[in-house]
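Q: Hi! First time asking for a complex rather than a single chain. Here are the components, and I think there are two in total. Is that enough to go on?
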Amino acid sequence: MRRTVLKSLLATAILSATAGLPAARAADKEIVIGGSIPMSGVFAFAGIGIHAGIQDYVKMVNAAGGIAGHTLRYVPEDSAYKVDQSVAAFKKITSQNKVNFYYGDSTAFSKTINPELDRAGSMIMSGASFATELNDPKKYPYQFVAGPDYTQQFGILLRYIAQQKPGAKVAFVHSDTEFGRDPIETSRGVAKALGLDVAIEIMTPPGAVDVSTEIAKLRRARPDFTIFHGYILGPIPEFIGQARQMGLDTQFMGTFWTMDNSTVMQMGELAEGFMGVMPYNYYYDQSAPAPMLDKIRAMRPEYQNVPYIQGFLSAMLYAESARRTLAAGKEMSAANLKAALNSIENFDTGGLIGVPVTLRGNTIPVGRIYRADTKARRMVPASDWIVLE
Amino acid sequence: MRIGTARSSYRHDEALFDSRTQHAWLAILAVALIGFPFLADEYWLYLACLVAINIASTTGLNILTGYTGLVSLGQAAFMGIGAYTVAALEQKLGAPVLLNLLAGGFVAMLGGLVVGLPSLRVKGLYLAIATIAASVVLHFVFANWHAVTGGHAGITLVPAEILGLSFDTSFRLYWLFVPITILMVAGAANLFRTRIGRAFIAIRDRDISAEVLGIPLLRYKLLSFGLSSFYAGVAGGMWAYFFRVVTPESFPLILSIFFLAAVIVGGMGTILGAILGAVFMTMVPEALKLVVGWLPLSADATLILSPVRTIVFGVLIVGFLVFEPLGLQEIWRRIRRFFHLWPFRA
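A: Yes, that's all I need. Here is the structure of the assembled complex.
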């Protein structure tokens, strides 16, 4: 037994040692998309979708002949949603490939890797983070967000609320994390500017179960609308369940990471009427012509979650940036790729987003309000597309 | 007693490494450590730096848990103190790197002395819970003391700089972190040849007997906490210079469990155990990724194998605990013992 263990260890050591040899790749006619993708760990539900989305778009482009004679190559590594492993994946992929685009898995990773991106000057990055901080082209010149940042998501919700009920009372319920606190401070000002009254702000531990004290506070404040942020699901069902028992009449709303169809439907009957902001069309949406969604449905007949759409759109924006850079006869440097990305105006995403999109700063400030229909088990549109200026 | 190590002088008797074979291997190790950065790519250098940081912190925890017998789940929080101290000093004062790292160690040491106070009353699982409570308190401080810690957004650092040389790549950081870690490990190895280190071991083996022998428990338990936290603080400082972003979420409880697992898997109460444990815990997930990467599989299969890899990592840890409860260092000792008598007995 001991000898077997020793042999296994020796084999692992030899394998590990030889792995440092750089992989010989034909890099001349390739556009490489690297990715620290959370395929395992707490964020795997999103990572698996993101991975599939990028993979499918790359396949689609290559099947159509690539981009100006270049093929796309996608090089993912599992990050397990841990910063040290995400950075390790980045170092591994970038040291063995000439990477042009990179997908990061978290806000912490985006912040950590930013100096490396600036230093390398050869690639641009987007990722799973919608952090407001990333929407600063001076501080994060080579990053972008494939959608609205969290403050803009709140802005879209608040604009909708102001249209529906001018002067409404609003409650912000958020987790005590960087993610949860992200849009709160700036959104107070946005609400005030729209003539809304932020009646109460409640902060809870992420995933808190006992919310009875918070519900009592919410009941006293009697908000017309309650916006959750900084959670995936828990403690939203607990809030809604207890609020309904107490007869609290408030419209509950959520932001991107809560708004996947499968996540909302996990709430069961409590989901009925739940609303929120979503920057993309859902997989099943057929209310308007959407050739790209048709292709996705043809490739994958089963439901694909919103992280899939986000990954797919990210890859589409990488490809468009590369296409514009190559068409201008420029070198594929980070500065040129980002400039090409910033030149995107009224871009047709093939129905992934219901309106033509324009990149402003580092984000695409667009979204639509959806409402949960538990009988149909689907999120259905409750507003038109809202574009922030 | 090994062949050819008859000690003929007090100097020889006191030496940390006493045989020619050991000296030869040390020389080979030194050459390997010096040559490695020139041969390895950025990925392997990154991992080498990460391993160096983790060895420093695991060695610190080994002083406390492995040698003194005080179980702590606060190592990550102490690393956090060190990281924030370094980040704040760097950002606000622009103080020299080595001074920042020392300050990080000392501030973490002060934190360790406070957190160590309950160890006089409780031990075992009770002490572990007390250290978890301290971690929660420290996390709250990191998240809410905005003036110093920058709140939830944390602090972003500029690269470490010594004599105008910016340590902005893993290659350069390697030359900073590896010598510091070697110094710390050598310090720990020597500690257990002194009165203080032997007092720690006596407390671990039976604290009441140790007190009867004249070892003041208050002083030595707090000293053990302080030293352990100092190591964590310096490791946290290196971590801050390495990742250059420090947030409250950088040092979660799971990281403390990681270090405790490294101490146990490597072998509690041995210097080599802490090193091997830190290397194992850091490198095995990456090695498993490499193995999966070499298999002729599609990208979809990689996706399926990701959770399998996590399971294999868990099974490996459990396997070591069951089949080699004395840890990786025991395997190493057996290999050495085999060669001590080689070729006379195999």
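A: Chain A has two domains: 28-148+291-358, 150-278+367-387. Let me know if you'd like any chain examined more closely.
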